[in-house]
Write a structure and sequence with these properties.
Helix content is 75%, strand content 0%. The protein has 12 helices and no strands.
Length: 244
């Protein structure tokens, strides 16, 4: 055990001596060699480029890359069956705006802002659990850098899922466990839909990264804690989704 820990520290130190590559190379590394990437980020925790790329890719997947009709339908499908003609007309005007180029840009900015806020909260939860409750000493900047880079996997996944959304004409379609749901709506369906394959992948990669910061804990142990946090966040989102 001691030899293994010493070997891990030696490897981490060696990674830290290497220069941090550019953002594009880091994007590739998070998929193919996350351990080496996080070993370098531990000593040079850059985060801005990765964080902005996550917001841009996610915003593009939810706003810019979807056909106008899908955007319009996503907004109008929530209209109550007993809505008045004036209410229906108002919703249709809103849908027309958000389906326009200006509306898509505004929607992307809004989605990115909300995602950024939740991102900060998520990193704060990780810091609370691992630093306050478990006695770790990682800095917020390190955790934010690691989470930003791991989230690149989720962001790329959101873009990859766009063709599936278009093919199924469903903005919630994707590579998630909702495909296994026995029901088409409700809390269970929303919860399973929130368990995206790319998000699960990103969680595992983040566990690899955090093992570089909390070297007295195993990747498996860290992954279990992260999956509990992830599941709780998805459950809250599922409960707040209309129709649950």
């Amino acid at each position: 055990m001691v030899d293994a820990m010493n070997s891990a520290r030696t490897e981490a130190a060696a990674d830290g001596e290497k220069p941090l590559p550019n953002l594009f190379t880091r994007l590739i590394m998070v998929f193919v060699s996350p351990g080496a990437l996080f070993g370098r980020l531990k000593h040079t925790p850059k985060w801005l480029g990765a964080f902005l790329l996550v917001l841009v890719l996610t915003g593009a997947a939810t706003s810019l890359l979807l056909p106008e009709e899908m955007v319009r339908e996503q907004i109008t499908q929530g209209v109550a069956t007993d809505a008045s003609p004036e209410q229906i007309e108002g919703v249709e005007r809103v849908a027309d705006f958000f389906a326009s180029p200006a509306g898509r840009a505004a929607s992307m900015l809004l989605n990115s802002t909300v995602a950024g806020i939740f991102f900060v909260i998520f990193v704060g939860i990780i810091m609370l659990v691992f630093n306050v409750f478990m006695g770790g000493e990682a800095r917020f900047k390190q955790l934010f850098s690691f989470t930003s880079h791991a989230s690149l996997i989720t962001a790329v996944g959101s873009v990859v899922s766009v063709p599936l959304k278009i093919a199924k004409e469903d903005v919630r379609a994707g590579l998630n466990l909702g495909l296994l749901s026995p029901v088409d709506s409700g809390f269970l369906n929303n919860f399973l839909t929130g368990l995206d394959i790319f998000a699960i992948w990103a969680t595992i990669v983040l566990a690899i990264g955090l093992s570089k910061l909390y070297m007295n804990r195993s990747i498996g142990g860290i992954a279990i804690i992260l999956f509990i946090i992830f599941a709780l966040v998805v459950a809250v989102g599922a409960a707040l989704t209309p129709g649950s």
